[in-house]
Design a protein that fits this description.
Blueprint: H1 4-12, H2 26-52, H3 56-85, H4 91-99, H5 102-110, H6 114-117, H7 122-127, H8 142-151, E1 156-158, E2 161-163, H9 171-193, H10 196-214, H11 219-231, H12 241-255, H13 263-274, H14 279-297, H15 303-323
Antiparallel strand pairs: 1-2
Helix pairs in contact: 2-3, 2-9, 2-10, 3-4, 3-5, 3-8, 3-9, 3-10, 5-8, 9-12, 10-11, 12-13, 12-14, 13-15, 14-15
């Protein structure tokens, strides 16, 4: 590059080509959902790296950005499905306004999963949590997320004094809880959005459900359709190693959410997933999942994340002992069991 004019020309390409009026097709929506999911996951992993180097404020900012990207996933899905049900002219226009705004995304993702929690008591949650989540935010917490992000990146003027990022009180506790909140949702989204093909199946499944509901003539028929949908959950196809890992990860986060991990239900559910591949491929999935989870144990300030990873590893250990006896010894807790390790 020979001149500042050439530099400016290159720099300008980063602000060109944006559209904010497009109505998305199913294929485009699916690609967008997966792109946003993968970016949310990457941002959270980069935040984990920053925590390892004690850059807690920067990590908190990335955790909030990861939340915002996850919110895009649900918003693309919801907008597409709603346009099938009620196709108002401004649905996509309103979507794009939210897409490029931070606070609406922070508000929507902060509430994600609340309906799954229900009214379960602590006794109910001891052995069986109806939700894959254990961390939630209050109704007003989202109002503070943008301030957290800004103060984690920029010098601010607080109480008549300049405050640098990293000097905020309570950053360790805030990051620990917030990271766990985001991580649980990243883990649970994987099975639906790890590939664009999965996101497309997910969209098409919900559109099918909606059309079946439209064909009902009475409230009772509609209730029966909804009950059938609850009894027969979304079961996507499996084409790649990443998709199988994502299916196992969803089950790991779901059945580790109670105080005591649900070993029996996880074992049966995981067996159903891994029965579709040969024993060697199943062992490869277990090793890769274990390696990722062990990495979470090594990040000391993220205590909630580490505890959850330990419970997930215990589920994997129990599965290996019961269902994979012929693959050689797989020690899910051993650092020698890396993604490169294959065979007994």
């Amino acid at each position: 590059m020979e001149s500042s004019v050439e530099f400016e020309k290159l720099l300008s390409t980063f602000s060109q080509g944006r559209r904010s009026d497009a109505a998305l097709s199913a294929v485009s929506a699916a690609k967008g959902m997966t792109a946003c999911y993968l970016n949310a996951s990457a941002l959270l992993e980069e935040a984990r790296v920053l925590v390892k180097f004690e850059k807690l404020s920067r990590a908190a900012a990335l955790a909030v950005l990861s939340m915002e990207e996850l919110a895009k996933v649900t918003d693309i899905h919801d907008t597409f499905v709603k346009t099938i049900a009620h196709p108002p002219q401004d649905s996509w226009e309103a979507f794009w306004k939210r897409f490029f705004s931070h606070k609406p995304k922070q508000r929507s993702i902060s509430k994600y999963g609340e309906s799954l929690a229900g009214n379960a008591s602590l006794d109910d949650l001891f052995f069986s949590n109806p939700s894959p989540y254990t961390h939630y935010l209050t109704d007003t917490s989202s109002g503070h997320l943008d301030a957290l992000k800004q103060r984690s990146l920029y010098v601010d003027f607080v109480d008549d004094a300049f405050q640098s990022p990293g000097s905020s009180q309570g950053i360790v506790e805030v990051l620990d809880w917030l990271f766990a909140f985001v991580e649980e949702r990243v883990d649970s989204f994987a099975s639906w959005h790890v590939t664009a093909e999965r996101s497309l199946e997910f969209l098409e499944h919900h559109v099918e459900c909606l059309r079946a509901l439209f064909q009902t003539r009475t409230r009772e028929e509609g209730q029966r359709v909804l009950q059938n949908l609850r009894d027969e959950p979304f079961c996507p196809g499996q084409r790649t190693h990443a998709e199988i890992c994502a299916d196992v990860r969803y089950r790991l986060v779901k059945y580790s959410s109670s105080f005591v991990p649900d070993y029996l239900t996880f074992r049966a559910s995981c067996k159903d997933v891994l029965a579709r591949v040969d024993t060697g491929a199943a062992a490869s999935v277990v090793r890769d999942e274990a390696a990722d989870l062990r990495g979470r144990l090594e990040v000391a300030p993220l205590n909630f994340s580490a505890l959850r990873a330990y419970k997930m590893l215990k589920l994997l250990h129990n599965y290996v002992e019961s269902e994979l006896p012929g693959t050689g010894r797989i020690d899910v807790f051993s650092p020698n069991e890396t993604k490169e390790t294959r065979g007994g």
